[in-house]
Amino acid sequence: MDNIAMLILGLFISALGIVNIMGNISTIHSYNRRKVSEEDIPKYGKAVGTGTLIMGASFVVGFAVSFLSELLMVVIVLPATVIGLGFILYGQFKYNHGIF
Fold first, then answer.
1. What does R_g of the chain's alpha carbons equal in angstroms?
2. Which of 11, 48, 70, 85: disulfide with 91, CB 3.0–4.6 Å?
3. What is the pLDDT of residues 70-82, one digit of tens each?
4. SS percent in the chain: helix, strand, coil, step 5
5. What is the pTM of this model?
């Protein structure tokens, strides 16, 4: 039960990812979506939302396996976080033409 904050954070981040995938990008900072054109909003939301969902789901799975092994938790969460950040950065550079 030491990692309950990770579970709560994972559920929250996963929910934000699902909202973004569905096309609502209002949860993303305005300076991060400032240059996204109207026709690219669904694609941008899917790219950023997928990365966010991957990271959130890894936190939830990491919480579940933390009862078995702390090392296994790290092996799941770290690569998934890197992959999730990759999706987010892809969306930022492709549709927003930069990080800011």
1. 15
2. 48
3. 999 999 999 999 9
4. 75, 0, 25
5. 0.92
